[in-house]
Target: VanZ family protein
Amino acid sequence: MNGLKQAMINIALTFSILFVLYLTMIPHGLIGTGNWHGGPVHHFNVNMNPLHLFDDFRSASMKYFIIDDLGNVLLFLPFGYMLTLKYPYFKFLHLVFMGALFSSIIECIQLFLPNRTTDINDVILNTIGTVAGYLLFRFVEKDEEKQQVNKRSDHSV
Model:
């Protein structure tokens, strides 16, 4: 891999990490992170029940589902994609671990930040997003390989 391509990958991975940190560490009422009502949260809000996620699917509004649940998955998709691009030799479980670790660190930090909540479901959804990024990379990689094989067979005729 040439130096420019590696530098671009490093920049994109760094940007994806900084973007995740920006959205998860600073309350943004407009996009659904932090307090929806704009006021301070005066108590710790911690959810350690992973089954609560299913309650969200059943009872939450579509807006909440899209912003919070689907948003958590989509937020980590670029991280998983760029991590796989930078470290293509990572095995699937390494990538799952990296996504879960990054998300767990964020959730632990949020324990000590005002107007933040800590939720095991965020770790689960963020890890799913990391895996989705990995799978997207593998899909794109296979498609590119197919295109290269087709180009070679077209030129050999």
